[in-house]
Amino acid sequence: MILLRYLTHIGRYFLMIREVFVKPTKWSVMRGLIFKEIDDLVIDSLGIVCFISFFVGGVVSIQTALNLTNPLIPKYLIGFATRQSVILEFAPTFISIIMAGKMGSFITSSIGTMRVTEQIDALEVMGVNSLNYLVFPKMVALILYPFVIGISMFLGILGGWMGGVYGGFTTSAQFIQGIQTEFIPFHIAYAFIKTIMFAFLLATIPSYHGYYMKGGALEVGKASTVSFVWTSVVVILSNYILTQLLLA
């Protein structure tokens, strides 16, 4: 029964994605919706992303320095470890899981509230494709999500530099040498490929849970929690699959 229920949800999710692209809303209306979603989902997320990225980068740098107790190990490895940690995993994956809570809860609760108050039913009665009207602008807005992750990468490495240099663990020249050592440009491409995939998941999975929820205000809260859990699970699973495909 549990397997059947999961398969039903997966099938309904893919049918929802197909329905998003059927019978599009007029561009004059859609344009305003897209700019509103960019403001709500991308611009409003920059503050928390910048704050977390800067200080976690600093923590990664300090913890790396504290574990390099052997004097034979060069200090530039602090910069190397910070760069690898931030670019490969922290910025794309860790920030996406945080955004599953921040963006995902917002998307689920906003669409779920519209479902509870029968606004979605009103859209359907007026002949509007409610999935295209509600979900498509979020998918387009999150095309800018790699921009957020790029800022996260920069601030994570900057935080690591400040933590390492001003904490007295390494010099600026050594840290920068570590950042440049054995740099592989494809790692940046890998991080942004993951980010685009995560952006799609962040836009669609919370929308699914909000759109198909039933009940009242209490169920909206439950749907937000469930959407965060499942978005995080799918992000982590897709992270593993993409890493195997792209780096293995």
Report on this model:
This protein is mostly helical and 248 residues long. The chain has one domain (27-246). It is 82% helix and 0% strand. It has ten helices and no strands. It has helices at residues 2-20, 27-42, 46-67, 77-116, 119-125, 130-141, 145-166, 172-180, 185-211, 217-246. The longest helix is centred in the middle third of the chain and has 40 residues, at 77-116.
Q: H/E element string?
A: HHHHHHHHHH
Percentage of residues in DSSP E strands: under 5%
Number of DSSP-assigned strands:
0
- Low-pLDDT runs: none
GO molecular function: phospholipid transporter activity
Keywords: Membrane, Transmembrane, Transmembrane helix
Pfam family, one: MlaE
InterPro entries: Permease_MalE (IPR030802)
Short key terms for the protein model shown above:
single chain; 248 residues; mainly alpha; phospholipid transporter activity; Permease_MalE
